[in-house]
Write a structure and sequence with these properties.
The chain has 10 helices and 14 strands. The chain is an alpha+beta fold and 391 residues long. The protein has a 7-stranded antiparallel beta sheet. Strands 10-9-8-11-12 form a 5-stranded mixed beta sheet. The protein has a two-stranded antiparallel ribbon with strand order 13-14. A hairpin with a 5-residue loop joins strand 6 and strand 7. Helix 1 packs across helix 4 and helix 5 packs antiparallel against helix 6. Bound molecules: zinc ion. Zinc ion binds next to loops.
């Protein structure tokens, strides 16, 4: 299985200069090959492959000799990155690849193995042309190194993400058992609500950071463009943004860990993140980002642990249906936090009821896959109608 280990690295002055040049050259190659591909298609519908584009690197180096000053292995990787962005444009709803800009785009370069190495005993990373770079060895790994991506964050810190092929195999997913299945409702008031009654609140710590960012942005606006003072304030703002991102990330990992510890199978709604982030309320948009990130973390962590993650249609009617008798309460409004079912008289908390329905729908979605399911939990699924209805 592939795992990424991210470490902070401490390049010296000369190495920093070379890395900056490499980031610049990779950006240049990315933009140039994207442009070549675009122009070729626009002029006579020629479709250039990534290999055609890599062949163009040599004439590019002749034209722009400074491309030879940086590690040569990073340049084809920039072409591959551009190609991936280009292919994603056709495969998914991602837009046409944009040209990278010096200040807005992420600074990164990729070293494939064997042009990089991790010397764990010496706590050094080794890169072609760059030499040995000190890194913060906060954990060790066992496995075969595939590549290292060096990045610089907007607060100026450098990081190395090492992709490692580990010897651990991905475990077979365990059979779904209704008693250890938890439905997750993405709450209106809370961050998430689970079918066993837990409510996890929205992260709130970012409000103070947002206030500090807003204050600094006012200061920044008063300084002359391109001045040192303005750059200094910008750096402070970027540091706060990164702090906020890390706090949110930490919170998400904590929530994911709790959910995975307490359940074997998780059921959640299939979100449309792209559509949701367009929501203009700030608190809502942060909640959406967190949900998207939680989904991403749950997806890979449940795979590692052999847990099951089931997605249900996000338009499935989970809120207005009674989780006990199936009564459809069409009079329920957004402001109703709790309601009593006219059909069976059960009193429901709005969000917990929704989570229970999500759990039920997730379990039901598995039934056709079991084949000839007769409600007695054959094939090790451990499902029976009684336990589904009674939850
Ligand atoms: Zn009912």
């Amino acid at each position: 299985m592939h795992k990424t280990f991210k470490y902070r690295i401490y390049p010296n002055k000369a190495q920093q200069a070379l890395l900056q040049a490499t980031f610049g050259c990779c950006r240049f190659v990315y933009n140039k090959t994207l442009d070549i591909r675009k122009t070729a298609y626009e002029t006579d519908k020629t479709k250039l492959s990534k290999f055609d584009l890599i062949k163009r690197l040599k004439p590019l180096k002749d034209e722009f000799p400074w491309l030879r000053d940086v590690p040569h292995v990073c340049l084809p990787q920039a072409v591959y990155n551009m190609d991936r962005a280009y292919q994603n444009f056709f495969k998914s709803d991602k837009g046409y690849p944009k040209f990278k800009t010096k200040h807005r785009s992420r600074k990164s370069c990729k070293f494939p193995y064997p042009f990089c190495d991790v010397l764990q005993e010496q706590a050094r990373l080794k890169f072609s042309k760059l030499g040995l770079v000190k890194y913060k060895k906060d954990r060790e790994f066992v496995g075969t190194l595939r590549h290292i991506v060096v990045t610089q964050d907007s607060d100026g810190k450098y990081y190395a993400s090492c992709l490692v092929e580990t010897t651990t195999e991905i475990p077979e997913p365990q059979p779904v058992d209704a008693s250890t299945t938890v439905g997750i409702d993405l709450g209106l008031k809370d961050f998430i609500v689970t079918s066993d009654g837990h409510k996890i609140p929205n992260p709130r710590f970012y409000a103070t950071i947002d206030r500090r960012i807003a204050r600094l942005q006012k200061h920044e606006a008063r300084k002359t463009k391109g001045s040192k003072r303005r750059a200094h304030i910008r750096l402070k703002i970027n540091k706060l943004y990164i702090k906020k991102r890390n706090l949110i990330k930490n919170y998400i990992y904590h929530v994911a860990k709790t959910l995975l510890r307490e359940s074997q199978t998780l059921v959640m709604e299939d979100l449309n993140i792209v559509g949701m982030v367009k929501n203009h309320s700030l608190a809502k948009s942060i909640q959406n980002i967190c949900w998207g990130e939680l989904r991403r973390v749950l997806e890979y962590k449940s795979q590692w642990l052999g847990h099951n993650l089931i997605f249900i249609d996000r338009f499935a009617p989970s809120t207005k249906t009674c989780s006990y008798c199936g009564f459809h309460n069409s009079t329920l409004t957004l402001s109703d936090r709790s309601w009593t079912c006219p059909g069976c008289g059960t009193h429901h908390d709005r969000d917990i009821n929704a989570a229970l329905n999500i759990k039920r729908m997730g379990l039901e979605s598995l039934l056709p896959a079991v084949g000839g399911f007769d409600g007695r939990g054959e094939d090790g699924y451990g499902l029976d109608e009684a336990s589904i209805c009674a939850v």
